[in-house]
Design brief:
This protein is an alpha/beta fold. Helix content is about 40%, strand content about 20%. The protein has ten helices and eleven strands. The strands form two sheets. An eight-stranded mixed β-sheet has the order 1-2-4-3-5-6-10-11, with helices on both faces. Strands 7-9-8 form a three-stranded antiparallel β-sheet. Strand 10, helix 8 and strand 11 form a beta-alpha-beta unit. Helix 1 packs across helix 10 and helix 2 crosses helix 3. The radius of gyration is 17 Å and the shape is globular.
Length: about 290
């Protein structure tokens, strides 16, 4: 896999690339980096050119000037131009899904197809995603990462929002993420997303469904007035305790044309827990 730095406008992006063919941009979530797509990328590389950068402000990529989805989407479009892929299939997991959704809403002409795995769109479940509240507390999360960072990441990947297949975060994969979040500036940048986008989502709620513990919000996509129109695939790990299947029901309603693949024995971290199933679904969907 090719790895190098790419200048996307004024933001330096750490770039990973493998394969040849139509471009697929793969965007990771927290607390990961583009490394999380390695298994999926390898399986798709015989037919596609897979791009798996570190999202701005994560891993080895520079932080964006403002931590909001619209700014990150613009940087990612600049990144695609820089690597000569002006149009691409865009796949996103967790935070990467939020950025993928914004890209699809903002510039549908640049997004051929959309793939989402376990990400929030127009709904949040604050009781399940309890860490959102924790990350909005000033200074405390930074101090926790500074003094017990390795342990916190282990708990987060294997406990707080656990993988159903926890063995994927043993040894080298866990070490890579611990190293990526060992820099206080990287931690602060990642937390800044929770203190911008999710804070708006929780404070500008439109409707609360108490029976399901779901907050209906217009802050995820800048007002909820635009619709996803391109072909969309949603692959959902059904054992995700942080983004439960109740959110999937909302996504089916908000993106009615979406194809749905439910993975019964998979937790939150679909790209690493189920790379075979995810790659097979993407291959069939994009073909």
């Amino acid at each position: 896999m090719l790895e190098r730095a790419v200048q996307a406008g004024s933001t330096e992006i750490f770039h990973r690339e493998v394969g040849n063919g139509p471009a697929i941009l793969m965007l990771h979530g927290f607390p990961q980096t583009g490394h999380c797509w390695r298994g999926v990328a390898e399986r798709l590389s015989s037919r596609f050119r897979v791009l798996a950068p570190d999202v701005p402000g994560f891993g080895a990529s520079a932080a964006p000037p403002v931590h909001d989805a619209a700014t990150v989407a613009r940087i990612l479009f600049d990144y695609l131009e820089a690597v000569d892929a002006p149009q691409a299939v865009v796949a996103g997991h967790d935070w990467g899904g939020a950025f993928a959704l914004w890209m699809a809403l903002d510039r549908p002409d640049r997004v051929r197809r959309l793939v989402l795995t376990n990400t929030a769109f127009r709904e949040l479940s604050p009781l399940h995603s309890w860490y959102i509240w924790l990350f909005n507390i000033p200074l405390l999360p930074e101090l926790a990462f500074r003094f017990t960072g390795d342990q916190i990441l282990s708990v987060f990947l294997r406990g707080a929002t656990p993988a159903a297949q926890r063995s994927v975060f043993e040894g080298e994969p866990l070490r890579i993420y611990q190293e990526a979040y060992s820099d206080p500036e990287r931690v602060a940048s990642a937390l800044a997303y929770y203190r911008t986008v999710t804070r708006k989502a929780l404070t500008r709620q439109v409707r609360v469904r108490l029976g399901r513990g779901v907050v209906r919000t217009d802050a995820i996509d800048g007002g909820g007035r635009r619709e996803i129109e391109m072909p969309t695939l949603i692959v959902w790990g059904m054992k995700d305790p942080a983004l439960p299947p109740s959110l999937l029901r909302g996504m089916k309603r908000d993106i009615p044309q979406a194809e749905i693949v439910e993975l019964d024995d998979v937790g939150h971290f679909v790209p690493e827990e189920a790379p075979d199933e995810l790659a097979t679904a993407i291959d069939a969907f994009v073909a």
